[in-house]
Design a protein that fits this description.
The structure holds two protein chains of two kinds.
Chain A: E1 7-16, E2 19-29, E3 34-38, H1 45-53, E4 60-65, E5 68-69, E6 80-83, H2 95-105, H3 110-123, H4 139-151, E7 157-161, H5 169-186, E8 189-194, H6 197-203, E9 206-211, E10 214-219, H7 221-226, H8 231-236, E11 243-250, E12 253-256, E13 259-262, E14 272-278, E15 283-299, E16 304-310, E17 313-319, E18 330-335, E19 341-344, E20 350-351
Parallel strand pairs in A: 3-8, 3-9, 6-7, 7-8
Antiparallel strand pairs in A: 1-2, 1-4, 4-5, 9-10, 11-12, 11-14, 12-13, 14-19, 15-16, 15-18, 16-17, 19-20
Chain B: H1 3-37, H2 41-45, H3 58-65, H4 71-101, H5 107-116, H6 123-136, H7 142-166, H8 170-178, H9 183-194, H10 196-212, H11 215-220, H12 228-232, H13 243-274
Helix pairs in contact in B: 1-13, 3-13, 4-7, 4-10, 7-10, 8-9, 10-13
């Protein structure tokens, strides 16, 4: 049996009043893939998830699951399970009844319900809490209960709407690992909405970057991180994200704030303004480099983050503990030509350099 | 000496005195009625009122089993009030759900007119209702009386229930839809258990209003449908008012409402605690 859970969105558009939440969304999610929808608030990622769930319907476009058009199918007929951001547990039911609810609604034989509930609860290690009510659980336990309710009837699609955002930092890291394990064991397609890029990078097989209602890039975390295809994605991915610096290009020569840098090879871009993207970790201190002034330094634990004034801009640079200096001092910086990303100043699209 | 502790003690004492005084305003008539119900009719009219007297239960015996027995009327009131309450809840819960959740055309004006019916003074409705029931030959019938009561209780109950329904997080219902529950199943399994407190409050109000209603009962009822409020009026005549028996009857008539109140109160408390979910599961 070929794995199930292939999702296709074609030309999806969704408006709320005059606000265009999604515009011309094309997306293919492969079976058994862990797919993240990543973007800031209001970028349309949750709306996309709700369309897949059937909780909303698009104004234009089609949505198919395993080749079947489900654009307007009610949520109950899609064989999808969802974990909500606030878990949406039923407060008047015990954990057991919460997990059993989807089985009861699907009219599963009563004899099998108890076993399936135990099995699902054991998978997320809450089988000792079955008699409790959601109000008597900790945040992490509530989250597990929501997970158990979602996996109990073995859905075709597993939808997660920021499921870790209500957990504290420590628990979030632990649960992240378990979530990934769980998805692999269940062998089910998972669509995961998050605004936390670290979550998306670590969990996802592939991801889509949402910005202002459109998808800017689809790819593996490595592809998106190493080769952002436009300046918006470059400015969003990474913590802190890339420095975005206006520059001028002439053949192989790049001019930043009056300082010239030679590129490896000619990017083949017509001479004129471009945008340079460079990660804070790719900058280095170099006596021959472009002079900047240290504005502020932040302790990040293992490294320090220097905020450097380059002209009117602030450029962020990650350095080792030993490399920090005093605020107000001049810090000359440079970068390996291979470490930079180049974008067209007009279109914002990537210019291939290396 | 802890100044703060003294201040707190003082505050508690003042609060208790004020609460006690307020409570007295409500309880005094009840105590008075109880005392009167234990007196003979002659002692009731004695002036100055006698403080020391020989208590007698004979007024209760008369009120229940005498020539003006209220037992049949108690049964009538029970039927009318129960039927009104059951029908009101059965209709108001789905209606309130529709108002709270569905995208209905003209929801706003509908909501307004539902409540607007409450703004008409009841006296203005007695004659129209009389004429309507008369034409339908529904005067002095149980269904006639219950339907008239429904016209008052239903809008009120819907209005009250809508606010309770709106408090339930929408995601919870969406989760149920994803779990293949239909709208009705969601209403039954998810929404209604969580608005039990609201339903209990509504039951108390509706039952109380139907039970205590006098104006319409006296106009639209008769020998078949004579609720206890009307029956008690028999103790008031042109020649005399039988205060002791009237008090006894009134206290007996109060009992069912008190019992319903206590029973529903437990549900109200339950309804409140069910919502106490920590950790954001019920935001």
């Amino acid at each position: 049996m070929s794995p199930k859970g292939r999702v296709s969105l074609r030309g999806i558009r969704k408006e709320f009043g005059r606000f265009v939440a999604l515009d011309d969304i094309d997306l293919d999610i492969e079976p058994v893939e862990f797919f993240a929808l990543l973007g800031p608030s209001g970028s349309g990622k949750t709306t996309t998830l709700r369309l897949v769930a059937g909780l909303d319907t698009p104004d234009e476009g089609t949505l198919t699951v395993d080749g079947v058009d489900v654009t307007f199918a009610p949520p109950g007929e899609r064989d999808v399970a969802m974990v909500f951001q606030n878990y949406a547990l039923y407060p008047h039911m015990t954990v057991r009844d919460n997990i059993a609810f989807p089985l009861k609604m699907a009219k599963a034989p009563a004899s099998s319900i108890d076993e399936l509930v135990r099995e699902a609860a054991a998978k997320v290690r809450i089988d000792h809490l079955l008699h409790r009510r959601p109000g008597q659980l900790s945040g992490g336990q509530q989250q597990r209960c929501a997970l158990a309710r979602a996996i109990v009837r073995k859905p075709k699609l597993f939808l997660l709407d920021e499921p870790l955002s209500n957990l504290d930092a420590q628990l979030r890291l632990e649960t992240r690992v378990e979530l990934k394990k769980l998805q692999r064991n269940l062998n089910v397609t998972a669509i995961y909405v998050t605004h936390d890029q670290e979550e998306a990078m670590t969990l996802a097989d592939r991801m889509a970057i949402f910005l202002e209602g459109t998808i800017k890039q689809i790819g593996t975390p490595a592809e998106v991180f190493d080769h952002p295809n436009c300046v918006e994605v470059a400015a969003f991915i990474g913590s802190p994200p890339m420095n975005i610096i206006p520059a001028a290009l002439n053949g192989r020569t790049l001019t930043i704030e009056g300082h010239s840098v030679a590129l490896h090879r000619d990017p083949g871009h017509p001479p004129g303004p471009v945008i340079v993207g460079i990660r804070p970790g790719s900058l280095r201190i170099d006596p021959e480099g472009i002079p900047t002034q240290l504005y502020l330094q932040e302790n990040m634990g293992e490294t320090w983050l220097l905020n450097l004034k380059l002209g009117e801009m602030i450029v962020k640079m990650r350095v080792a503990h030993s490399e920090r200096s005093a605020e107000g001092e001049t810090v000359p910086i440079s970068f390996a030509p291979g470490a930079i990303h180049l974008f067209d100043a007009e279109t914002g699209l990537r210019v291939q350099v290396n | 000496m802890n100044v703060y502790r003294h201040a707190r003690l003082l505050r508690t004492i003042v609060l208790m005195i004020v609460t006690g005084a307020l409570l007295l305003v409500w309880v005094l008539p009840l105590i008075w009625a109880f005392v009167v119900s234990l007196k003979s009719e002659r002692e009731v009219l004695a002036y100055p009122p006698s403080v020391v007297f020989e208590p007698t239960w004979s007024n209760y015996v008369d009120a229940l089993f005498g020539s003006f027995s209220i037992v049949d009327s108690l049964l009538t009131s029970t039927i009318v009030a129960t039927a009104t309450t059951v029908l009101t809840i059965a209709l108001a819960v789905p209606a309130a759900y529709a108002f709270a959740r569905l995208r209905l055309p003209a929801k706003r004006p509908l909501g307004f007119y539902t409540l607007a019916t409450q703004m008409v003074p009841p006296v203005g409705l007695v004659i129209p209702y009389f004429l309507i029931l008369n034409r339908l030959s529904w005067l002095d019938t149980y269904h006639g009386m219950v339907i008239v009561y429904l016209t008052f209780s239903l809008p009120f109950a819907i209005w009250l229930m809508v606010s309770y329904m709106e408090d339930i997080p929408w995601e919870m219902e969406e989760a149920a839809f994803l779990d293949r529950a239909s709208r009705l199943q969601t209403l039954w399994h998810i929404v209604i258990p969580q608005v039990r407190g609201g339903i209990a409050v509504t039951v108390i109000f509706v039952f109380l209003n139907a039970w205590n209603e006098f104006l319409f009962a006296v106009q639209l009822g008769g020998n078949t449908v004579r609720p206890v409020t009307v029956a008690m009026y028999n103790f008031v005549s042109v020649e005399q008012t039988l205060w002791a028996k009237l008090s006894a009857a009134a206290l007996v008539a109060m009992l069912p409402v008190v019992i319903i109140g206590i029973a529903a109160q437990r549900q109200i408390v339950k309804g409140l605690t069910v919502g106490a979910v920590k950790g954001g599961a019920r935001k």
